[in-house]
């Protein structure tokens, strides 16, 4: 699902078409500047919408999905990117090195999952918990930690809450790492299958080579060619 490439394709098509139409309306048809420009905008928007629908139809057909499924996943990806930006706003508020590392790990892992689903939208169903729960928890916990950490005075209760939040962030980090593994599960299975298949082929090749060598060893010695010297020479009288 390369949305940027699709975006470039749409505009690469519609820019020359709409601009050429504008020149025709303005110069060839003698239309005024304002109505010609209005038609240019209308043609551009209509063409962009039409090409986008064709691209979506081609994508969902290739993926074997419905349009509603595809749109839902695109919507979830957009929301996830917004939440990730919210997560990144807490970097400057966290002073603990440990918490900073946890937040950085959460950010990298989340980007990884979003990137995987963008490349293959079907992977969304492997990591639904990430989109529906884990990323929300990461944003909420990091916001809570940043709020507590920036309080000027900290009593024992607040220190305990900070420690609990830090431990929960650590647990959440583990869960999101599992989400990454789930997202890559089918790829890893395919890789294992290919490796196993390669090993089987290698084993067959070795067996074939061994059989050929065995046949060569078992072949009887060739008879000497006529005219060659032999040990059983005839004695001359």
UniProtKB/TrEMBL annotation:
Pfam families: Halogen_Hydrol. Residues 209-237 are annotated as: Disordered. The chain crosses the membrane at residues 22-45. It comes from the Bacteria. Keywords: Membrane, Transmembrane, Transmembrane helix. Residues 226-237 have a biased composition (Basic and acidic residues). This is 5-bromo-4-chloroindolyl phosphate hydrolysis protein. It comes from Bhargavaea ginsengi.
